[in-house]
Specification:
The protein has 309 residues and is α/β, with parallel strands linked by helices. The protein has helices at 8-32, 106-116, 133-149, 162-174, 177-183, 228-235, 251-263, 286-289, 294-307; strands at residues 39-46, 74-80, 87-92, 119-123, 154-160, 192-199, 240-245, 268-273.
Length: 309
């Protein structure tokens, strides 16, 4: 169990409150979603069969019966006609590390696959507090290893919010054996991340606040997990696209990360979508919720351009 002393109950209440709000906003969106056609879709593929699954560190949101919370280690593949057999996008859903599932990003991932001609793997991973950050990253690398065994060697990562954090640190660690060792990640494969494109990404966390309090309760990981600008400075980073919106609460983080990446010489493209219509606000993860909006289309286009550099 996580040991937060007198703050444990408050932190868990914050988690439950966040999940409740997310369900209220995601339910009508998902009920109205129309998925595009023209892809071969393979769903709910286990990617970590036979891999260790430590005892849960706490109650999992899925065990509490929460909608759209899924910690199962499974993935979907969205395969366009004529796709290369060795190149793939890895799509990682958000949800403050405590909520979410691949279905929330499915529409975005399918449009990305159709427009890019590149297969998209859309993954689930264990949520806090069922595991810690090392466990989440290990799940992601188990998924990458599973894809390597299917012949994929060139990866591009993308994801939203907490998934933006995961897509960026995954890109950094996939290209850095040193970083994987420091973070305690098992990965006996040869693969490369060529690009990373966080969407309204969460790149900086406080270990004393939600959700950073769940990251590393046993203090076994390096300090740069709390600031991915520092991770990129130490370990390097592939070409990056940062997208955000003028009503995104992560806007300041993205502006700060953009400067840090530029200062260390990482190629970075920055797109902040501006609200021009009252019924089309550029809120947090707008591109995931509305991939057919002009701003969502531009986010997809920038992600594809970054992969083709």
């Amino acid at each position: 169990m996580f040991k937060f002393g007198i703050f444990a109950k408050v932190l868990d209440e914050n988690r439950k409150f966040f999940i409740k709000n997310c369900i209220q906003s995601d339910t009508p969106r998902m009920e109205a979603t129309v998925f595009p056609e023209g892809l071969t879709v393979q769903e709910n593929i286990p990617y970590a069969e036979g891999k260790p699954l430590p005892e849960p560190l706490g109650k999992d949101a899925a065990e509490e019966g929460q909608k759209f919370c899924n910690s199962d280690r499974i993935l979907d593949l969205y395969i366009p006609e004529g796709a290369k057999s060795d190149e793939i996008f890895l799509l990682i859903h958000g949800g403050a590390f405590v909520y979410g599932c691949k279905e929330l990003d499915k529409e975005f991932g399918m449009h990305l696959a159709l427009k890019s001609g590149i297969t998209v793997a859309n993954i689930n991973y264990r949520l806090f507090p069922r595991t810690d950050l090392q466990g989440q990253l290990q799940d992601i690398f188990y998924a990458i290893g599973f894809l390597c065994e299917k012949g994929y060697k060139t990866f591009h990562t993308t994801g939203d919010s907490a998934g933006g954090y995961h897509c960026l640190i995954t890109a950094i660690l996939l290209n850095s054996e040193e970083g994987r060792k420091e973070c305690g990640i098992e990965f006996p494969y040869q693969a490369t991340c060529k690009s990373t494109s966080p969407i309204c990404g969460d790149h900086k966390e406080d270990p004393k606040k939600f959700a950073g309090c769940y990251f590393d309760p046993d203090k076994k990981m390096p300090s740069y997990i709390y600031d991915l600008g520092e991770a990129a400075k130490k370990l390097g980073c592939p070409p990056t696209v940062l997208t955000t919106g003028d009503q995104d609460m992560m806007l300041p983080q993205n502006e700060e990360l953009r400067k840090k990446l530029q200062d260390i010489g990482i190629p970075v493209e920055y797109y902040c979508a501006v609200t021009t219509e009252e019924n089309r606000p550029m809120h947090h993860v707008y591109a995931i919720a509305h991939p057919t909006w002009p701003e969502g289309i531009k986010t997809i286009d920038l992600t594809i351009e970054n992969a083709r550099r």
